[in-house]
């Protein structure tokens, strides 16, 4: 039976009353935020740093210079994705947290690497992306035999990196108590993300109409219209991370995991759309395709995002650890809203209404994100100064 406020034709209806953060829910999410920060810096961040260092060493061992450069570039430029994903590991029991972090970091590193590998499909083997992305779905199904030979249709090959990533995710997941119970959901969520990436990368040759047709078909029966489904599916790796965290709880049920995947599919809409909103000017100058092209006006976009957020918050209220999911949603928005471009003349009509919708929790989240960005900027400048001094000394 469809949940209240949803239609089975892929359209999420706005209810007469908007589901915003009432004070009680905001307070619970605020407590969740404090717990996440404390657990992350004490028990998760050191593990993440160690894992990223481990994968940099693996990437440096890739024989093929092009693939080695791609892997190292992805780790350098997108390593923060793994750090952010691992914040979901804070809900895992301490005895399983190391394995959860190992699985999340390896999976995120793999996803970013595969994204780069499949961004420009080979003219000689246009199906190479599909074969490569079987590594992603293999990784989350440790009790199913691996497909292997992931580079079969790709013009280049390496024999240490991708296989090691797959092995690490499988090994870590196999030690979590609920992995077998949730494996079909994990695979479906991973397959959704892989399919979306391949469809998006293929749109340059197949056409936007084919992409739209695929998204409409996949969105049917969900609470999302095709534009939001496409955006959420493109960042569906976030849903997989949430499911990995859930697999560390021996009490989680299959139905709860389905609901969790549904919640995080909606949350995953935000990074995709907001990234395009922030990068609008750069995309316009470079001629890169943007998700914003799927919306007639910014008013329509703002209304759709508000509806997605309301739906995710509403469903989180009754979900286990619902306050944590709301905190994640607010944190994702705060990450982008803390950028100066979020307050630009172009972006403000979209971001301003959502900022009001997510109060009162957004204010402390924004303060934290701005502080984090300032600290990161200072560390970057200090490293450059140190590198310059070392260079002069030598």
Structure description:
Helices cover 70% and strands 0% of the residues. It is an all-alpha fold and 394 residues long. The protein has a single domain (23-379), classed as Farnesyl Diphosphate Synthase (Orthogonal Bundle), CATH 1.10.600. The longest helix is centred in the N-terminal third of the chain and has 38 residues, at 23-60. Mean pLDDT is 86; it is low at 1-19 and 122-126.
Map the helices and strands.
Layout: H1 23-60, H2 65-85, H3 94-118, H4 128-132, H5 134-139, H6 161-174, H7 179-206, H8 208-219, H9 226-234, H10 237-246, H11 254-267, H12 269-278, H13 280-286, H14 298-317, H15 322-337, H16 348-357, H17 362-393
Highlighted features:
394 residues, mainly alpha, disordered N terminus
- Structurally, the number of domains stands at 1
Which sequence of SSEs, written as H and E, runs from N to C? HHHHHHHHHHHHHHHHH
Main beta sheet strand tally, sense and closure = none
- Shape, per Cα inertia axes: globular
Number of strands: 0
Residues in helices, as a percent range: over 70%
Determine the N-to-C terminus distance: 70 Å
Q: Which residues form runs of ≥5 with pLDDT under 50?
A: 1-19, 122-126
Figure out the total of helices. 17
CATH-derived topology = Farnesyl Diphosphate Synthase
